[in-house]
């Protein structure tokens, strides 16, 4: 360990580099700490990830970058070091085992050397609490991977972890990579270091749990099965990883586990949430629908004091991460320093409503009572509160043909729109899209996007929904406007058969002002760059359909295709 002082904008910071933190199995992790120079114990905020503590130190020298800045790096997520020190906390940034300067090896997703990352976090937190520069009160800091680590740590119940503040974490590992059963490439970017992400800071490689758990014959059979999927077979990166799994072993594991089940559930944060009893503040910004879904599910599962804060669009925070610190320090001042600042006298749920740009508060999600109402797809690309009276022989279906992106650059998009709203109309909650569709293949993607369209033509994404057609099964949790898919198996579609597909419309909160329209778009691929996707990391798109597909969307008296949306009362 080395100790020195540095100057950050005129403020002296005491730095302890390469602290050695022992784990219970003999592996040693390394960490850096940052604090004020006065020799006194302070509460500590711990940040743990495999992204590398040296990368996080750029928070002291790199101004925050908003997407779509080319300097935005998705892995600088441990927080504003100078601000943490200014608030009189110790900022402790550690490398998980197998990464950076830490010993050990990393196996698979959120599994280090065969032990739970929560177990390592427990040992790390208790070591920090015992140091003379810590007063025994520990919280955690950081978004995304760091946020997931907070939940894994809290579920292990380390005695000195007093509270956590989690922003933008991932709590359902299947939904982190498969949205409605459709593969999402963003986790590949975060792991490999592609297009706006530095990636994992591993000194060797991340080892595959699949390769360790299955025989070569079983692995060969799984690979052959995945290569029979036309979507996979048409995408060079996936073909490469399947043939050469040691090139990117963690990504190989995800590709070969295309349905939900034990492989994902084993250490799912949302599964472990009922073990958490300490205070938890959950924060998420709108525009990341699948992450909002997991955040709300986690909130509902927690037993102890809790808060849910849903912020405004756009979806991606700055890198280095500096947002939400005012709220975080109020939370930690209360729970770690014992300052009665009134934070617990405020409502448990606070939601920013797009459109009106007002905050709505309550004791639960959604913060207001809602009434589910249907908006029906009608001829001439209209959305109406009234169902279509004509039968299928008169109300001919809408349709589109999508060629694979191997032979075209054009993504075909169908859209339907309401008439302009005459008065402000607020919606908040989860929704559903019931699509009666016929396809001429045994599978496709349904990608749904809802927009608020202003009279001047400007528009903002409100929420999304995804469903791989072969994952259309619903489970017993499904209620009106709130569908659930188990994603435990894929059932091929019978070509030419009209099926009802029910998409989960991810949670959102929006008020449509007078003159604005609600527009819904449907496609089976997504634009690789548009006003919304430009705000996301460059690799944040979904696996395109690898076969030509003709889609017919029926919306007649017999086939009432519709949106079921949560209108507030």
UniProtKB/TrEMBL annotation:
Record-annotated Xaa-Pro dipeptidyl-peptidase C-terminal domain positions: 329-564
Pfam families membership: Peptidase_S15, PepX_C
GO MF, one example: dipeptidyl-peptidase activity
Keywords, in A-Z order: Hydrolase
Top-level taxon: Bacteria
Family annotation (PANTHER family): COCE_NOND FAMILY, PUTATIVE (AFU_ORTHOLOGUE AFUA_7G00600)-RELATED, PEPTIDASE S9 PROLYL OLIGOPEPTIDASE
The protein's name in its UniProt record: CocE/NonD family hydrolase
């Amino acid at each position: 360990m080395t100790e020195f002082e540095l100057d950050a904008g005129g403020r002296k910071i005491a730095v302890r580099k390469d602290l050695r933190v022992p784990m219970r199995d003999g592996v040693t992790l390394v960490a850096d700490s940052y604090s004020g120079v006065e020799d006194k114990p302070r509460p500590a905020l711990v940040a743990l990830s495999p992204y590398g503590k040296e990368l996080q130190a750029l928070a002291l020298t790199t101004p925050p970058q908003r997407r779509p800045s080319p300097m935005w790096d998705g892995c600088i997520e441990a927080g504003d070091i100078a601000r943490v020190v200014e608030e009189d906390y110790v900022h402790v940034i550690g490398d998980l085992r197998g990464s950076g300067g830490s010993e050990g090896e990393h196996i698979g997703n959120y599994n280090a050397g065969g032990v739970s990352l929560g177990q390592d976090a427990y040992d790390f937190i208790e070591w920090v609490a015992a140091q003379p520069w810590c007063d025994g009160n520990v919280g955690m800091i950081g978004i995304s991977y760091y946020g997931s680590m907070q939940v894994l740590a809290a579920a292990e119940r380390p005695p000195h972890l007093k509270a956590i503040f989690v922003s933008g974490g991932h709590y359902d590992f299947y939904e982190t990579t498969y949205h409605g059963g459709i593969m999402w490439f963003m986790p590949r970017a975060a792991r490999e270091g592609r297009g706006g992400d530095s990636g994992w800071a591993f000194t060797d490689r991340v080892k595959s749990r699949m390769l360790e758990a299955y025989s070569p014959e079983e692995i060969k059979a799984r690979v052959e099965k995945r290569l029979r999927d036309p979507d996979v077979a048409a995408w060079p990166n996936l073909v490469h990883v399947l043939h050469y799994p040691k090139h990117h072993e963690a990504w190989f594991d995800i590709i070969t586990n295309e349905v939900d089940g034990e492989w994902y559930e084993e250490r799912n944060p949302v599964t472990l949430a009922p073990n958490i009893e300490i205070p938890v503040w959950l924060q998420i910004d709108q525009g990341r629908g699948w992450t909002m879904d997991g955040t709300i599910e986690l909130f509902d599962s927690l037993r102890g004091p809790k808060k849910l804060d849903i912020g405004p669009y756009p979806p991606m925070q700055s890198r280095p991460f500096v947002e939400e610190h005012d709220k975080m320090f109020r939370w930690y001042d209360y729970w770690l320093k014992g300052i009665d600042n009134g934070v617990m006298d405020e409502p448990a749920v606070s939601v920013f409503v797009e459109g009106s740009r007002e905050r709505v508060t309550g004791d639960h999600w959604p913060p207001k009572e809602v009434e589910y109402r249907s908006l029906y797809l009608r001829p001439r690309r209209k959305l109406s509160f009234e169902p279509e009276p004509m039968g299928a022989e008169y109300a001919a279906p809408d349709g589109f043909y999508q060629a694979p992106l191997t032979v075209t650059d054009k993504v075909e998009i169908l859209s339907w729109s309401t008439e302009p709203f005459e008065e402000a109309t607020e919606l908040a909650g989860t929704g559903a899209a019931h699509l009666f569709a016929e396809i001429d293949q045994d599978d496709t993607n349904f990608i749904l996007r809802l927009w608020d369209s202003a009279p001047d033509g400007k528009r903002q994404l409100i929420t999304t929904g995804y469903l791989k057609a072969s994952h259309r099964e619903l489970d017993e949790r499904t209620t009106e406007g709130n569908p659930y898919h188990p994603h435990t198996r894929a059932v091929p579609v019978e070509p030419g058969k009209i099926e009802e597909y029910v998409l989960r419309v991810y949670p959102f909160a929006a008020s449509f002002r007078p003159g604005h329209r609600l527009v819904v778009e449907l496609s089976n691929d997504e634009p690789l760059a548009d006003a919304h996707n430009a705000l996301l990391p460059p690799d944040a798109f979904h696996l395109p359909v690898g076969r030509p597909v003709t889609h017919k969307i029926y919306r007649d008296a017999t086939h009432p295709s519709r949106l079921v949306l949560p209108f507030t009362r």
